[in-house]
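Input sequence (96 aa), recorded before submission:
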Amino acid sequence: MPSITKRQFWIDLLKNVIKSWAKDQGIRTSPKTGNQHVVPHEKGSAIRGEGNTRLTDTFRKQSTAIRRAKRIAKNQKGDVIIHRQDGTMKDRISYD
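Predicted structure, token format:
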């Protein structure tokens, strides 16, 4: 366990507090990735960029969503992460 008398303890604590505050303010705290998630949606399937709350697009067929996500991921040198109906990861395709 780190000692509270050590300088590094206070630096790490301050970093964690600032990061937590930034997340609460809606500020991105991690580097942007080109990863695209194909997720279940009430209309069929949707694409959501990693770290985004809004959907990029929705599709009736999962295969169409995967095709579009692949094009986006190739352009951004990211991954396509395909999710099952229960939200677990089904497959991952890397383009970096």
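Checked by second reader. The mean pLDDT is 91.
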